[in-house]
Amino acid sequence: MPQIGVVLGSDSDLPKIVSGIELMNKFGLEYEIRIISAHRTPTEALNYAQSAKERGLQVIISVAGMAAHLGGVLAASTTLPVIGVPIASGAFSGIDAVYANLQMPPGVPVAVVGVDNMKNAVLLAAQIIALSDKNIAKKVEDFRGQQREEVIRKDEKLQQDGYRHYLQNNS
Ligand code: RP5
């Protein structure tokens, strides 16, 4: 049974979330990926949100660009946490999707991550699931530890090499 429901507004959004899918695989998160449009398939969007909780989903990640109402439409019909990933597509390069996700009316929240930032959506979903799942909590802690070590290693190298050599060796 999936823990995370990833809902794409279009198959054209799929290439933008591949690294996030790989992160879910790395963490051992159970997920499903669906293409459901708030505008083109509104009935399916409503049905998905209304049945999500009883199907056992814990978090929904909504991925959409342009007039990205998907997160809001899903959030309106479920009390599961909904995380919106605004996608850069169309004339406004994602700022339209940011506003569409961000400016929900008080009472129906959508948590919004950065443009195309599926990685942060997955990490936030993992942190929510980690509240009641020790195995995922350990994965989140390990991830943070590895990230920290990587930055410290880079800083040590920069101190040793100086910026010119660092740039030559790492570009
Ligand atoms: C949104 O419109 C989708 O999420 C996508 O980002 C954008 C363009 O969709 P397509 O015309 O490529 O299907 O609803």
CATH topology of the largest domain: Rossmann fold
What is the tally of helical segments?
Answer: 6
Alpha carbon gyration radius = 18 Å
Structural class: alpha/beta
Q: Return residue spans where pLDDT drops below 50 for at least 5 consecutive residues.
A: none
CATH 2nd-level architecture of the largest domain = 3-Layer(aba) Sandwich
Helix-strand topology string: EHEHEHEHEHH
Structure description:
By secondary structure, the protein is α/β, with parallel strands linked by helices. The protein has 2 domains: 4-132, 3-Layer(aba) Sandwich (Rossmann fold); 137-171. It is built from 6 helices and 5 strands; from the N terminus they run E-H-E-H-E-H-E-H-E-H-H. The chain has helices at residues 18-27, 42-52, 70-76, 95-102, 118-130, 134-170, and strands at residues 4-8, 31-35, 59-65, 82-87, 111-112. Strands 2-1-3-4-5 form a 5-stranded parallel β-sheet, sandwiched between helices. Strand 3 (59-65), helix 3 (70-76) and strand 4 (82-87) form a beta-alpha-beta unit. Helix 1 runs parallel beside helix 5 and helix 5 packs antiparallel against helix 6 (134-170). The longest helix is centred in the C-terminal third of the chain and has 37 residues, at 134-170. The radius of gyration is 18 Å and the shape is globular. The chain binds 5-O-phosphono-beta-D-ribofuranose. 5-O-phosphono-beta-D-ribofuranose binds next to strand 3.
